[in-house]
Amino acid sequence: MTLKTLGEATGVHYTQISRIERGEGVFISKNLRKICEFLLISTSVVPKAVNADDLTEKVQALVQTWPQSEQLIWSILEGVQAALERGSVNR
Q1: Strand segments (E) across the chain
Q2: What is the DSSP string of 31-67?
Q3: Contact 46/69 with Cβ under 8 angstroms?
Q4: Tens place of pLDDT for every residue, the chain, 91 residues?
Q5: Tally of CB atoms within 10 A around 39
Q6: Which ranges of 22-51 would DSSP assign to H, the alpha helix?
Q7: How far apart are CA 62 and CA 69, in angstroms?
Q8: How many secondary structure helices (H) and strands (E) does the chain include?
Q9: Residue 44 CB neighbours (<10 A)
Q10: Is the pTM above the cut of 0.70?
Q11: What whole-number distance in Å separates Cα of residue 44 and Cα of residue 13?
Protein backbone atom coordinates (compact mmCIF):
# COMPACT_ATOMS: atom_id res chain seq x y z
CA MET A 1 0.00 0.00 0.00
CA THR A 2 1.27 3.43 -0.83
CA LEU A 3 1.01 6.52 1.31
CA LYS A 4 -1.28 7.97 -1.34
CA THR A 5 -3.62 4.95 -1.08
CA LEU A 6 -3.68 5.18 2.72
CA GLY A 7 -4.33 8.90 2.43
CA GLU A 8 -7.29 8.33 0.13
CA ALA A 9 -8.69 5.67 2.49
CA THR A 10 -8.34 7.86 5.59
CA GLY A 11 -8.83 11.36 4.24
CA VAL A 12 -5.34 12.34 5.42
CA HIS A 13 -3.03 13.85 2.80
CA TYR A 14 -0.16 11.53 1.95
CA THR A 15 2.41 14.21 2.80
CA GLN A 16 1.02 14.33 6.35
CA ILE A 17 1.29 10.55 6.58
CA SER A 18 4.89 10.82 5.41
CA ARG A 19 5.60 13.37 8.18
CA ILE A 20 4.05 11.05 10.78
CA GLU A 21 6.09 8.17 9.38
CA ARG A 22 9.27 10.21 9.90
CA GLY A 23 8.25 11.13 13.44
CA GLU A 24 7.65 14.78 12.53
CA GLY A 25 3.92 14.83 13.26
CA VAL A 26 2.19 15.81 16.46
CA PHE A 27 1.69 12.64 18.45
CA ILE A 28 -1.99 11.65 18.51
CA SER A 29 -3.04 14.41 16.17
CA LYS A 30 -6.44 14.14 14.49
CA ASN A 31 -4.74 12.81 11.36
CA LEU A 32 -2.83 10.17 13.29
CA ARG A 33 -6.09 9.18 14.99
CA LYS A 34 -7.73 8.71 11.57
CA ILE A 35 -4.85 6.51 10.42
CA CYS A 36 -4.89 4.49 13.64
CA GLU A 37 -8.64 3.97 13.38
CA PHE A 38 -8.26 2.79 9.78
CA LEU A 39 -5.44 0.40 10.79
CA LEU A 40 -7.39 -0.73 13.90
CA ILE A 41 -4.72 0.60 16.29
CA SER A 42 -5.80 1.96 19.67
CA THR A 43 -5.07 5.65 20.27
CA SER A 44 -5.47 5.40 24.02
CA VAL A 45 -2.78 7.42 25.76
CA VAL A 46 -3.61 6.05 29.21
CA PRO A 47 -0.46 4.33 30.46
CA LYS A 48 -1.02 0.63 30.80
CA ALA A 49 0.89 -2.57 30.29
CA VAL A 50 1.07 -3.44 26.63
CA ASN A 51 0.21 -7.00 25.85
CA ALA A 52 2.71 -7.81 23.10
CA ASP A 53 0.72 -10.88 22.09
CA ASP A 54 -2.39 -8.76 21.40
CA LEU A 55 -0.40 -6.27 19.37
CA THR A 56 1.33 -9.04 17.44
CA GLU A 57 -2.02 -10.66 16.69
CA LYS A 58 -3.50 -7.37 15.44
CA VAL A 59 -0.54 -6.68 13.18
CA GLN A 60 -0.52 -10.23 11.83
CA ALA A 61 -4.26 -10.11 11.15
CA LEU A 62 -3.90 -6.80 9.34
CA VAL A 63 -1.00 -8.06 7.22
CA GLN A 64 -2.89 -11.27 6.51
CA THR A 65 -5.97 -9.43 5.25
CA TRP A 66 -3.92 -6.71 3.55
CA PRO A 67 -0.48 -8.17 2.64
CA GLN A 68 0.75 -4.97 1.00
CA SER A 69 0.47 -3.14 4.33
CA GLU A 70 3.45 -4.77 6.04
CA GLN A 71 6.05 -2.16 5.01
CA LEU A 72 3.62 0.67 5.73
CA ILE A 73 2.93 -0.70 9.23
CA TRP A 74 6.65 -0.92 9.96
CA SER A 75 7.19 2.64 8.78
CA ILE A 76 4.35 3.99 10.90
CA LEU A 77 5.51 2.07 13.99
CA GLU A 78 9.04 3.43 13.52
CA GLY A 79 7.63 6.96 13.24
CA VAL A 80 5.58 6.52 16.40
CA GLN A 81 8.59 5.09 18.21
CA ALA A 82 10.73 8.06 17.14
CA ALA A 83 8.04 10.49 18.33
CA LEU A 84 7.81 8.72 21.68
CA GLU A 85 11.58 8.76 22.09
CA ARG A 86 11.68 12.49 21.35
CA GLY A 87 8.82 13.05 23.77
CA SER A 88 10.62 11.27 26.59
CA VAL A 89 13.75 13.34 25.94
CA ASN A 90 11.72 16.59 26.12
CA ARG A 91 10.07 15.76 29.44
Answers
A1: none
A2: HHHHHHHHTT-----S-----HHHHHHHHHHHHHH-G
A3: no
A4: 888 998 899 888 888 888 878 777 555 567 777 888 888 887 665 444 556 667 778 778 877 887 788 888 888 888 888 887 776 544 4
A5: 18
A6: 30-38
A7: 8
A8: 5, 0
A9: 9
A10: no
A11: 23
